[in-house]
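For reproducibility, we list the full input for the NAP complex.
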Amino acid sequence: MKKIAVLGSGIVGQVLADGFIKHGFEVMRGSREPVKLADWKRGAGPRAQTGTFPEAARYGELVVLAVKGTAAESAVDLCGAAALAGKTIIDATNPIADKPPVNGVLSFFTGPNESLMERLQKKVPAACFVKAFSCVGNAFMVNPDFSGTKPTMFICGNDANAKRDVVEILHLFGWDVEDMGSIEAARAIEPLCMLWCIPGLRENRWFHAFKLLRK
Ligand SMILES: NC(=O)c1ccc[n+]([C@@H]2O[C@H](COP(=O)([O-])OP(=O)(O)OC[C@H]3O[C@@H](n4cnc5c(N)ncnc54)[C@H](OP(=O)(O)O)[C@@H]3O)[C@@H](O)[C@H]2O)c1
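The corresponding predicted structure, in tokenized form, follows.
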């Protein structure tokens, strides 16, 4: 697995695409308007390409979904189910609603007994969605430095082989991994984004990550 599609022209797409290139992968970043990724492509070197969402989805042996939460379902539609079928899809999205936070607490457009990833999985049952990277700020996604302590990335998804791929990538990217099981666990992992953002939105403190202590 060497060819990675990163769907997203935002900061998460950039950080993860750069992380994959740093670790020796080939990357195509996808956008509705690939031309806006031209500067990134020039700077990222010969293993970087750009394309539309469907072009990138077809290219990737593994696909990373890093688009605005409210647009995730339409981005998946734009890729087309056939391009995603049978592939591991790392889902970094969060279902953040287009509403201002209340005392630092973001609003989600999903309810407590559902998740965005379950909606996406229903759209493309043949794809293997794995939640990852959703519960930390982009500054810490790739090889985070917490003075020797590896933070914990919480993942979930229904396909064991896909989760093995993602665990391998997360270890390469410097993470301790906690597999929370099947896709319904996304109902618990996605809201960690709300918790992670509170210190930032209330007090401009953004330099933290979660760690699960085990005994
Ligand atoms: N920012 C963080 O530190 C962080 C941390 C963890 C998780 N996340 C999650 O990661 C995801 C990406 O975040 P981000 O901050 O990098 O960027 P973002 O601004 O949330 O998303 C940008 C991407 O969304 C796509 N998009 C927007 N509207 C669209 C539409 N109507 N149809 C199709 N695609 C559309 C854009 O496509 P075009 O390229 O075509 O414009 C672009 O690729 C979000 O779900 C966010 O919650 C963010």
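Residues 8-13, 31-33, 66-69, 71, 74-75, 92-94, 96, 133-134, 137-138 surround NAP (CB under 6 Å). DSSP finds nine helices and eight strands in the chain. Both points were considered when choosing residues for closer inspection.
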